[in-house]
Amino acid sequence: GRAITPALTSPKCAMPGTRNWRARQAKVPQHRETRRMPYTAEQMFDLVADIGRYPEFLPWIIAMRIRTPHPGHLWAGTHPEPVDPAAHQIVTADMVVGFKAIREHFTSRVTLDRARHVHVDYLDGPLKYLHNDWHFRDVPGGCEIDFAVEFEFKTKMFEKIAGMFFGDALRKMVASFEARAAAIYPQVVAG
Questions:
Q1: Spacing of C-alpha 140 from chain mean position
Q2: Is 64 helix (H, G, I), strand (E, B) or coil?
Q3: Residue 139 backbone phi and psi in degrees, to 5
Q4: How far apart are CA 71 and CA 16, in angstroms?
Q5: Would you state the pLDDT for residue 186?
Q6: CA angle 11, 24, 117 (to 5 degrees)
Q7: What kind and span of H or E run contains 184?
Q8: DSSP 86
Q9: Which 3 state secondary structure label does DSSP give 29?
Q10: Is the pTM of this model over 0.85?
Q11: What is the CA radius of gyration of the chain?
């Protein structure tokens, strides 16, 4: 289901498990949902992981630059399952987002866990933080995608703008990913 909350200010001290952390969780723009799609988990992972093509189909993304991928992976010794270094990639991406007269630059580190998980860590730009996760798993007739995003802007002006448009922007983004999948992949036969 959809859980969208408006953007408000965040407490200064917000460590997980504390009262301020729980209060912040209720105030920042966040969204979580699970979707079933008639494509394989690998196909949907490939679509989401192909961040260099985002300007071709995602609204408001004007430009994207992929920096040289980082060698290795983050989970050496900490991943719950055996880790194949060839299946894990970490890239830094610079993105320009624009809406009317507003242009903002974002830098993020994107961790790709082949066909299972895409994790985005915000590094630089107009946000205080951003957490974004996509989890993919095959199910009969296609795949299931768990998507979660949470962020907070540095300035109150952007917090207010985000609060006003967050729901609409998110719906357009999700619809854009769905349309892109329909354009490039055949649907999976139910089974």
A1: 25
A2: strand
A3: -140, 165
A4: 30
A5: 82
A6: 130
A7: helix 156-184
A8: G
A9: coil
A10: no
A11: 17
pLDDT tens string for the chain (191 positions)?
Answer: 433 333 333 333 444 454 444 444 446 678 899 999 999 999 999 999 999 999 999 988 999 999 866 554 444 443 444 445 567 788 899 999 887 788 889 999 999 998 899 999 999 998 888 889 999 999 999 999 999 998 887 887 777 766 777 778 888 888 999 999 999 998 765 55
CA angle 56, 94, 160 (to 5 degrees): 85
- Tracing tokens 């768990």 back to the chain, one arrives at 146
Positive or negative: CA dihedral 51, 112, 105, 10: positive
Nearest-5° Cα angle at 141, 45 to 37:
45
Across 51-174, the runs of DSSP E, i.e. the strands, are: 61-66, 88-99, 102-113, 117-124, 127-139, 142-153
Q: What are phi and psi of 157, to 5 degrees?
A: -60, -50
Which amino acid is located at 116 in the chain? Answer: R
